[in-house]
Write a structure and sequence with these properties.
Two copies of one chain form a homodimer. Chain A is mainly alpha-helical. Chain A folds into two domains: 73 residues, Orthogonal Bundle (Multidrug-efflux Transporter Regulator, Chain: A, Domain 2); 112 residues, no CATH class. In chain A, 70% of the residues lie in helices and 3% in strands. The first copy, chain A, is built from ten helices and two strands; from the N terminus they run ααββαααααααα. Chain A has a two-stranded antiparallel ribbon with strand order 1-2. In chain A, α4 packs antiparallel against α5, α5 packs across α10 and α6 packs across α9. Chains A and B meet through α3, α5, α7, α8 and α9 of A and α3, α5, α7, α8 and α9 of B. Chains A, B: This is Transcriptional regulator. Chains A, B: GO terms for molecular function: DNA binding; DNA-binding transcription factor activity. Chains A, B: Keywords: DNA-binding. Chains A, B: Pfam families: MerR_1.
Chain lengths: 214, 214
């Protein structure tokens, strides 16, 4: 398809598509003469991914370029390729390891992974931004005197593991490896806000079931 | 306790506590003479809540004041009081109802609530920001050609309902109604980032289980 069709199919303006091409976020089309290039389904898919990250995820262009670099690096295994792509997304800053709450949270997170038998996640604790986010959020809860127990944390973790199984089952329905990696990145940008919305809706439903509207 | 003790117990500087008092985010202490006021456990709890919203949730002072107004309004029933407090938190903007994807997403969300039997949530669709967020995020997925089915959405919703049951069970362990409402607001600010971290960790674990690290 030509640029105008690519624009029509994607709902992205030709000016924006040209900008993405210049920034290297979209691979060049196949040049069929000096002024015309031809684009295919792969361009359309990539354009949707870029738009999701920039317009929905509000992710900076340089970060999008970095994520796409990992998405396209087929020299890596799938877990690492996925990890590298997701890890390049904006993350929480490194926690202060001198802080007593951070140290306690780290012990709590490590105990959780051990109890759950998440042996793979345990191998990644020194490098995974997800692990770092968990430590930061548990430390924030502790600092505020939110005195819950390890069992509650485990119940939440088990629910999130079921969500991860659903995510990966869906990713596996995609035909090509490139589509699978792209779907995983899209999921991180788009599915997380949806889960949060469902969570709050479920709280409203459950609250009204327990206490009514009076 | 005196101001200095309140500061020591909460880890919040006396200058910041004075600022919160001036802004009306913290009720005044009991004046025991012209220059000294006495604070109690309730001040400490409120201070933690304010700090969580401002420092962890990055919520503007005016919004915090609005949320606290609902938290403290004991003329309302618990569901409404909780809803009013959570709804005052920053939310997604109103979706464009002229947009075909938004209309389709609304139908999908309505069908979901019907199928799930969430009759209470259905009563709130015209006013609930959580419902609006769901419509916005489903519309974004649709617009990007993320062609999943209604069954997957329902599976996610069921998981989030279990998370909501855990949330409210924990809220009910708090002794006073004021603490229960405060815990619910803290949960929205602090537990959601933790769920997201657990979700990503679970994805790493599940991905490595399925595909290894090669």
């Amino acid at each position: 398809m030509r640029l105008a069709e690519l624009s029509r199919h994607s709902g992205v303006s030709t000016a924006t598509i040209k900008y993405y091409l210049r920034e290297g976020l979209l691979p060049p089309g196949r040049q069929i003469n000096a002024t015309t290039a031809e684009y295919d389904e792969e361009h359309l898919r990539r354009l949707r991914l870029v738009r999701a990250m920039i317009q929905v995820g509000r992710i900076p262009v340089a970060t999008v370029r970095e994520v796409l670099g990992h998405v396209d690096d087929d020299s890596l295994g799938r877990t690492i390729r996925l990890g590298a792509a997701l890890w390049a997304l904006p993350q929480v800053p490194e926690p202060d390891t001198e802080d007593a709450h951070v140290r306690a949270a780290r012990q709590e997170a490590d105990a959780l992974l051990r109890t759950l038998g998440w042996t793979n996640a345990r191998l990644l604790t020194t490098i995974s931004p997800a692990y770092r986010s968990l430590v930061v959020s548990v430390a924030a809860l502790r600092r505020l005197g939110y005195d819950w127990d390890a069992e509650l944390l485990m119940s939440y973790a088990e629910l999130m593991h079921r969500a991860a199984v659903l995510d990966l089952d869906f990713v596996e329905t995609r035909e090509s490896e490139a589509e699978r990696i792209e779907t995983a990145v899209l999921g991180a940008v788009l599915v997380e806000p949806m889960l949060q919305a469902l969570h709050r809706l479920a709280q409203e439903e459950e609250s009204a079931r327990r206490y009514g509207f009076e």
